[in-house]
Amino acid sequence: MKKIGFLSFGHWTDSPQSRARSAADVLLQSIDLAVAAEELGADGAYFRVHHFARQLASPFPLLAAVGARTSRIEIGTGVIDMRYENPLYMAEDAGAADLIAGGRLQLGISRGSGEQVIEGWRYFGYAPGEGETHADLARRHTEVFYEVLKGEGFAEPNPRPMFPNPPGLLRVEPHSPSLRERIWWGSASNATAVWAAEMGMNLQTSTLKNDETGKPLHIQQAEQIRAYRAAWRAAGHTRTPRVSVSRSIFALVNDMDRMYFGQGRQEQDTIGFLDENIRAVFGRNYAAEPDVLIRELAKDEAIAEADTLLLTVPNQLGVDYCAHVIDAILRHVAPGLGWR
């Protein structure tokens, strides 16, 4: 059994071929898709976060809106770039959105991905300290955010406050007590997966990974997940962690599916560079008739290791088609693999 959700990059463009022509389109359609996915029986609605791009950016208004329109489905991100975040203000936003959703947020956070602008976090007012890298900046912000989510007081109260204070040091409000257990680290390397386990965060893996061994993506990710779980056990955490894998999977069940995805594009992993120094392996797409998909996905070792699968959806093709993509996997593929 697996939890199965969708992951939307939230692209928009004014192209006539796109169903998402503006920021308003993609935000409102994201809410509608989450509602549709819940009605279909999917388990999660997740959204990417990219700054300076015609994509979804500030996640918390969207997460709160989805939380208000749904009642069961998990609502998450994959991922929030922590280089850009004020950890305390983020804790307030996250706490509010989680309370609106009734404790259903699953926040994926990380260093982020390749950027639209050079060192974009500097425009947001943040910079690495002396001797730090931008990855260190992300982890420093993460450590502050994760500590604040404990809900312990740390701020000295004003002796003459505008409103009465509870006794002792104050925390940021609103506080959601269980949110800390629903924070995920998006990891592209074995080392950061181990760090996430030591911190006590869940693990998100993407459709790409730093190429550390030259093996296929799914094998490298399976090894990464096993290293994460070993580090989790060694750290002595008492709860069971969660692990998600993202994949582009399309069941070809009608002529429209075959037109969009039946042309045999990217059926093998590819190699590229995230920057000048990081060689990455990008995962293949899965697009085939359901019986073929079942055979192919059964060989994906990372999916087998994970408890949660996130299906990337082509949001520019519109809500109805994306809902169809999700439904086709839930109806025609998941039962054959024992996921349902």
From TrEMBL:
InterPro entries: Bact_Lucif_Oxidored, Luciferase-like_dom, Luciferase-like_sf
Gene3D superfamilies linked: Luciferase-like domain
Pfam families named in the record: Bac_luciferase
Protein name as it appears in the record: LLM class flavin-dependent oxidoreductase
Any Gene Ontology CC annotation: cytosol
Protein origin, superkingdom: Bacteria
Protein's organism: Duganella callida
GO molecular function: oxidoreductase activity, acting on paired donors, with incorporation or reduction of molecular oxygen
Domain Luciferase-like: residue ranges: 9-250
